[in-house]
Amino acid sequence: MPETARPTARFVGVPNRAGRRVGTGAPAGPDGCERAGGDGRVKALVFERKPAKYAAAMAAGKLVPGGGAKVGPLRLRGDHDVPDLPGPGWHYVKPRLAGICGSDLATIDGRSSRYFEPIVSFPFVPGHEVVADLVDPGDPKAEPDGSYRVVLEPVLGCVTRGIEPVCRFCERGDLGNCVNIAFGGIEPGLQTGYCCETGGGWSTLMIAHESQLHRVPADMSDESAVMIEPAACAVHAADATLSEPVVVLGAGTLGLLTIAALAHFHPGLEIMAVVKHPEQRRLAKLLGAHFVVEPSELRRGVRRWMGSMAFGDGSIDNVTDGVSRVYDCVGSSDSVQTAMSVLAPGGELRLIGMAGNVELDLTPLWHKEINLRGAYAYGYEDRFERRTFDMAFELVQAKDLGRLVSATYPLSRYEEAIGHAATAGARGAVKVAFDLRDEKERNR
Amino acid sequence: MPRPGFVLEVDRSTPPILFHHGEQFRLEKLPPGRSRVIYPAEPLEPLEDIEGAIRDALLNPLGDSQPLPSLLKPGMKLTIAFDDISLPLPPMKRPDVRQRVIEQVLDIAAAAGVDDVHIIAALALHRRMTESELRHALGDRIYDAFAPHGALYNHDAEDPDNLTFIGATDRGEEVEINKRAAESDLLIYVNINLVAMDGGWKSTATGLSSYRSLRHHHNVQTMQHSRSFMDQHKSELHSSNWRMGKVLRDSGVKVFQIETTLNNDVFGQDGPMSVLQKREWEWGTRDRLAFLAMKKGLDKLSPKARRQIFHSWKAPHNVTSVQAGEVEAVHERTTSHVYEQHLVPIEGQADILTMGLPYICPYNVNSIMNPILVMCLGLGYFFNLYRGQPLVREGGVVIMSHPTPWEFHPVHHPSYIDFFEQVLADTTDPKVIEDRYEKQFAEDEWYRHLYRTSYAYHGVHPFYMWYWGAHGMQHVGRTIIVGGDTRAVRRMGFMPASTLQDALEMATDVVGRDATITHVHNPPILMADVT
Fold first, then answer.
1. Chain B partners within 8 Å of A314 (Cβ)
2. Residue A140: its pLDDT value, please?
3. What mean pLDDT comes out for the span A337-343?
4. Which of A34-48, A122-136, B177-191, B451-465 shows the lowest mean pLDDT across its residues?
5. B30 φψ region: left (φ > 0), alpha (ψ -120 to 50), beta (else)
6. CA A316 vs CA A308, A309, A341, A369, B411: distances in Å
7. Under an 8 A CB cutoff, do B421 and A314 touch?
8. Residue B170 CA to chain centroid, in angstroms?
9. Where on the phi/psi map is residue A178: left (φ > 0), alpha (ψ -120 to 50), or beta?
10. Homologous superfamily of the A240-375 domain (CATH)
11. What is the DSSP string of B354-369?
12. What is the pLDDT of residue A135?
């Protein structure tokens, strides 16, 4: 791939061998996906379109976080079809570690917005935080020696979809904003892990386009490498042009990584972190937060920090002159509402956590002229003139973020793994991942 | 003849001892053979003719003061300042002694043709008094005559236009007080001397002053060198106030001090609470039944309902003396009356000091006893209620019983919430707190706004509460709170225990297995004279 000033993805130098193009000519699967029908079977967690089970997951997830894994459409299959290579530039990769993300948990517990319906394709194998071995292209049975590890940049943009010319967002490197995520040579899917054709990280084998792959340095652990993708999300979201103090609301994986990104790329910026649990408090401070408060203490903390006045007779409903930016890494009704209450007029609420359906009183947004802005995925960071993933590699190494991987599970214990991930904060954990390095099915 | 204070050596026949526990009670068995209980004196006989005693004090002042009538002239500017809601505890039944005194003062002033009179609640950095609280303290007659015309009001320590800088002591302590008081031809201060700490020059130099002045003695250094702050002659807090008093006197501020003392009749001699006034082994069947009924009833109520019941209680608190005239002469006489009621002679220190903390302290009248106030009441007031040496040896253990809820009155104590959430989460060391945080809180505009316009304690007030416990914290090796909210207790750097027995077990790490124990049976208030 020729280098450009703003490349759409970082090609890691995999020899570009032609793969088999089966895609549109293959018979449709039972759920409508034109799935490849390659040789052999893989072990995978598969999420199927089953409305009744989805409703059950929704109910179970409300009762017990992660409860949707037991009753919902996610199931472990030992006979999932080997994905076929859609065309040139695609490769087989064998996941080593695959993280469980908040968006995965929302999907499993039936909390995902219907917004996603047209931009995913069923059945899909979740898992977009992936460090994997690149195997001999064209031979899914090839046994990797671990010498060529890659991290996946999972967005399925124009290049991966074989669309030319690429859309204007891909053209300028803003891969996360690609407008063609449901079109082109592969089935709809905003990312690997939500597309029926690519497979996903929660399996023993998947496919990836060479434009999605970033080679992992030999001295980087798998644990660090699996943090690259979420770290890239944080780096993209943590763009800060301000010298005023900021608030990071939430101290799960994304919140902690956002703190780390702000502290690393914007030294001198004062950061207040909002945490729920003792271990989160410790990590937030370790990664660069200057002040740490609990959610119920946020309004008072910001008021005093900023020397602001407040409405309310001793209790605080809204501070009058709060912070200029809040990074909301939770995305709930409460978090968004609280964020608005501590923002200064003209401040920005940057929504990093996947919000879904929330109920809000938007009066403060109107009255304080608050800017509400989302932050999704990654691409090219104009201010640094660097690709986000490159910055993420730097961040993970600088802050030793592999230590945030708290627990790993084999696929067979997926219910336990998802339960752990869904209650990670309360259990003193951060990132929970599937460990596929020892799956005996991996090389069958 | 009321019986004096008493020390009970606990043996196997000693019944369970009453521990106040916020708005509840606990009955605790203390280990026999190594425990003792200090009981307060019974309430002193009250004055038979209070009005006559007041009149007599005003006409026959102490020290070099002239009788009040001779100090009053037509056209003069007269200011009457009085102790605020923090005294007495609990609030006394009507008529409050302040009302009785001020009514007579006003009658004499009227007879002398004085018509420029202001009445000021000397609240320093405390919260403003509400109308109903002012009416309770002063009576409706005074309130209706003065408040509507703006002549009865709360002192505002943050109003630069109404403060006057008087000067500085020979140690550089700045003296700044209420402008109206400073510029009056006569300032009459009407106090209630509930404990030995109150009164004297502290009335004016503290009650009518500002943060600029207060910071010179309301600080860690002063409190750690006041041993105790209930013993004026060993108290750096008082020494500083007395130095400031000299500055006031030398600058021409003329003070006519009126001090009153009350007896220990907190719960009444009959009625539902009277059992709390008695010694346990003297409880009759009726007392036991009354106590059990009260305890069971309270335990079934919500904390809010219990709080309402207790804060509606008005104590009988009979007046035992009235003194008037020159500040120091008055205060010397007053202190002797206070000691007569409170002092209990004690021999030797104990390894462990236990205390049951009640529902009220000076700063939560009609409010919530938040954790900081629990600390202040225990390690501040109760610990310092000694003369000579503390009841517990250096490095010993203090065990306090109180629910210590993580709960704050948002209107009264807004800066307390922030202090608890933000400052104590960082450190509990009084000196570090003072250096790192005091100025920020003291100068915070929101706290200022709430202090001046709402009913909030000043932003710096929780610091003072923490400093009040600084001597106690420095002295003891461990503090344990029985029955408290564990998170709140830990936030303050103390250890939580579920029961007294657990607490005593936890204390063994510090003081060993055969540690001696002293329990202060307070309230009613007592002060240990420890030799």
1. 409-414, 450, 454, 456
2. 66
3. 97
4. A34-48
5. beta
6. 11, 10, 9, 20, 10
7. no
8. 29
9. beta
10. NAD(P)-binding Rossmann-like Domain (3.40.50.720)
11. EEE-BS--TT-TTS--
12. 85
Chain B, nearest residue to A305 by Cα: B440
Q: Give the mean model confidence (pLDDT) for residues A300-314.
A: 92
Nearest CA-CA partner of A19 in A107, A72, A89: A89
Residue linked to tokens 């923490």? B466
Residue A14 reports pLDDT greater than 60: no
Q: Where are the domains of chain A?
A: 23-229+385-443, 240-375
Confidence class of residue A29 from pLDDT cuts 50, 70 and 90?
very low
Residues of B in contact with A293 (CB under 8 A): 421-422
Q: Which of B412, B417, B454 sits opposite A300 (nearest CB)?
A: B417
Question: What is the pLDDT, as a whole number, of residue A438?
Answer: 83
Mark yes or no for CB contact B444/A307 under 8 Å.
yes
Q: CA B225 to CA B207: how far, in whole Å?
A: 21
What residue type is assigned to position B378 of the chain?
G
Predicted confidence (pLDDT) per residue in B121-164, tens digit? 999 999 999 999 999 999 999 999 999 999 999 999 999 999 99
Q: What is the pTM of this model?
A: 0.88
Exposure pattern of B334-356 as b/e (b: 16+ CB <10 Å)? bbebbbebbbbebeebbbbbbbb
**pLDDT tens string B289-306:** 999 999 999 999 999 999
Q: Between chains, do A301 and B422 touch, taking CB under 8 Å as contact? A: yes
Task: Locate all alpha helices (DSSP H) within A113-199, ordered by sequence.
Answer: 168-171
Q: What is each CA distance from B504 to B31, B179, B395, in whole angstroms?
A: 9, 52, 15
- Domains, chain B, in order of start with CATH, read 6-39+347-530 (3.90.226.30), 54-212+243-262 (3.40.50.11440)
Cα–chain center distance at A152: 11
Q: Name every chain B residue with its beta carbon within 8 A of the beta carbon of A304.
A: 418, 422, 440, 444
Class in CATH terms, A23-229+385-443: alpha beta
Strands A90-99 and A206-209, by their bridges, are: antiparallel
Helix (H) or strand (E) holding B429: none
Q: What is the structure's pLDDT at A16?
A: 33
Cis peptide leading into residue B358 (ω within 30°)? no
Please give the structure tokens belonging to residue B117: 């009179």
- Let me know how many helices (H) and strands (E) chain B has, helices first: 22, 20
pLDDT score for A198: 96
B370 vs A contacts (CB less than 8 Å): none
- What is the value of ipTM here, to two decimals? 0.83
Q: Sorting pLDDT into bands at 50, 70 and 90, what band is A39?
A: low
Interface with chain B: mutation pick from A302, A304, A306, A321, highest number of B CBs within 10 Å: A304
Closest residue, chain B, to A299 (C-alpha): B418
